[in-house]
Automatic annotation (TrEMBL):
Residues 499-547 are annotated as: Disordered. Residues 128-482 form the AB hydrolase-1 domain. This is Alpha/beta fold hydrolase. PANTHER family: HYDROLASE ALPHA_BETA HYDROLASE FOLD FAMILY, MONOACYLGLYCEROL LIPASE. Gene3D superfamilies: alpha/beta hydrolase. Pfam families: Abhydrolase_1. It comes from Microbulbifer echini. Keywords: Hydrolase. One of its GO terms (molecular function) is hydrolase activity.
């Protein structure tokens, strides 16, 4: 799901470098054979990032497609395609296409300064080390795609706004103005209605044709799982299997229940300590303390000096209660933060700088998302306003938010801003189809974390039942992005891709039990920190797969 940053965008056109060093990939058959007239092309080029001998054979491309398929001769756009070749290719194994980092709008990290072996190593067990090619893309509008629809207006305004004490109303006005300027600039050179899941599914099928692959295995994490489901719906004959990691389902209107889901996320974070006798003794009455802290910071904000990757100097972040709630929600995407939450609350209760490190780290991570120049947040707005907002009853969502008390304050402001951004974007709404369950007959593996802050495990458990041919693996002690957090999850996905009919519940359960036991052993062997009593870790052995 989206790594939320207030939404705005900018457009960055094709660099001269791309035009200077690219060449069209030849069609299959004789080099002299002319391909049928097409409005798409796959352009091979030298990779723009460094590799070394430890990498698999790597090919880089830019895929050129019409921005609007209804008018294919008009403006063209491009998105990057990276193909990592299997070390020992198995002729019967379908390539796995990774559909991007989610968000919507998040970058995969393909940029020259960000690309690393993580791009393939994180998925090696189910691809290049298992005889299967891995193909990675940034979807249109994001990361290395051209244009990249990023709101530089928001980035500039946020740099200033978060150094000032602003009320929620003042902050909303700042970012509303950012969005207005962003849309005014971008809409001159981009059709903002052409950035959504169904169009990205069309892009993927055009790519499949250019790669001359009959059927694809699809991998979607967070929002990109919606791309996988949409593709399976729209191109059923071109998909073999799907792996959905922290899945997003089109029939769940997440904004409708954002307030309750956010409150539940905070409560899970607090419950992690409250239900642990040792932690609760060390950090008693944690919920009341968090509520008091939010109220205190709203009345008297505190400046916390942080460091983040987009500045060489310390950044004086003015922490209000509502900003703290946003920081905490983002931090709860990672299960490792749960043991830090009590320390963060206590550190901010102190008047001095002692104990501020957990807060500084969490705020720094939040600001790196806010200021990320590769985040295609304007493309994300287009997704939201096309395929989710039309199916949200905002009045009902606000009424629900009104009952969430002091911990729901940030959501109450965000709901107004989310609705306003769609008035600014003024793009057509999606047809009703885009809010309906997708019942693809293709084999599907659904991996989900019980601590996921934005995608309720109960909601996903209900939604996945519309899939007639699927496996469900729930990891109660993990949050968002299961495969990055557990090697057992990746091994399960690898076995599933090799044989989608084989039930992975029991082997994953046994693997996860051992993985958690190893984590506990490692923690016990780690020298204790300065605190006499530490908050609990998430490493408690448990059977994590659903039966």
């Amino acid at each position: 799901m989206r790594n939320f940053r207030p939404l705005t965008a900018s457009i960055i056109f094709l660099s001269l470098l791309i035009g200077a060093c690219e060449r069209s990939e030849p069609e299959a058959g004789s080099p002299e054979t002319k391909a049928p007239k097409s409005h798409t092309r796959l352009v091979s080029r030298s990779c723009w990032f460094k590799t070394d001998d430890s990498w698999p054979a790597t090919q880089c491309f830019m895929m050129e497609v019409p921005e609007d398929y209804a008018h294919p001769t008009r403006r063209k756009i491009r998105f990057p395609v990276i193909r990592f070749r299997a070390n020992n290719p198995a002729p019967n194994k379908t390539p796995l296409l990774h559909l991007g980092a989610g968000g919507p709008g998040a970058s995969m990290g393909l940029e020259p300064e960000n690309a690393s072996d993580w791009l393939w190593l994180n998925y090696a067990a189910m691809t290049v080390e298992d005889g299967r090619d891995l193909i990675v893309i940034d979807p249109r509008g994001t990361g290395m795609a051209r244009p990249r629809l990023t709101c530089s207006e928001f980035i500039d305004d946020a740099q200033t706004a978060f150094q000032r004490k602003l009320s929620p109303e003042e902050e909303s006005r700042v970012f509303a103005f950012s969005m207005e300027r962003c849309y005014s600039r971008l809409s001159k050179d981009a059709d903002m209605a052409q950035y959504n899941s169904s169009v990205i599914a069309r892009d993927v099928d055009e790519l499949r044709k250019r790669l001359k692959i009959d059927k694809l295995d699809l991998y979607g994490v967070s929002y990109s799982s919606r791309y996988a489901l949409t593709y399976a719906r729209d191109y059923p004959d071109s998909v073999r299997a799907l792996v959905l990691n922290s899945a997003v389902f089109p029939n769940i209107a997440y904004t409708q229940q954002l307030a309750q889901d956010s409150l539940a996320a905070y409560e899970r974070g607090l419950k992690h300590c409250i239900e642990d006798k040792k932690c609760n003794s060390r950090y008693p009455d944690l919920r009341r303390r968090l509520e008091n802290l939010v109220q205190t910071l709203d009345e008297k904000p505190r400046t916390v000096s942080i460091k983040h990757r987009y500045s060489n100097q310390p950044y004086p972040f003015v922490l209000t209660g509502q900003r703290l709630l946003r920081v905490l929600f983002q931090a709860l995407y990672n299960e490792n933060f749960y043991s830090e939450l009590p320390k963060l609350i206590e550190g901010l209760e102190n008047t001095g700088d002692e104990g501020l490190e957990p807060a500084q780290k969490s705020i720094g991570h939040f600001m790196e998302i806010v200021l990320d120049p590769y985040f295609g947040d304007a493309a994300g707005v287009s997704h939201f306003c096309y395929e989710e907002a039309p199916f949200v009853d905002f009045d009902q969502a606000r009424a629900s938010a009104a009952s969430t008390g002091i911990l729901g304050g940030a959501v109450r402001s965000d709901l107004n801003l989310l609705q306003l951004q769609c008035r600014i974007w003024a793009i057509p709404a999606a047809p009703l189809l885009e809010s309906q369950p997708i019942a693809t007959p293709a084999p599907v593996m659904v991996l989900h974390g019980g601590l996921d802050p934005v995608l309720s495990a109960d909601d996903v458990d209900s939604a996945r039942k519309a899939l007639p041919n699927h496996q469900w693996l729930l990891f109660p002690q993990l949050a968002h992005d299961i495969i990055s957090a557990s090697s057992c999850a990746e091994k399960a996905a690898a076995r599933f891709l090799d044989n989608p009919k084989s039930d992975q519940t029991e082997p994953t359960k046994l693997c996860r039990q051992q993985e958690l036991a190893d984590q506990v052993k490692e923690e016990q062997e780690t020298p204790p920190q300065s605190d006499d009593t530490q908050a609990p870790s998430v490493g408690i052995p448990a059977a994590e797969s659903s039966p």
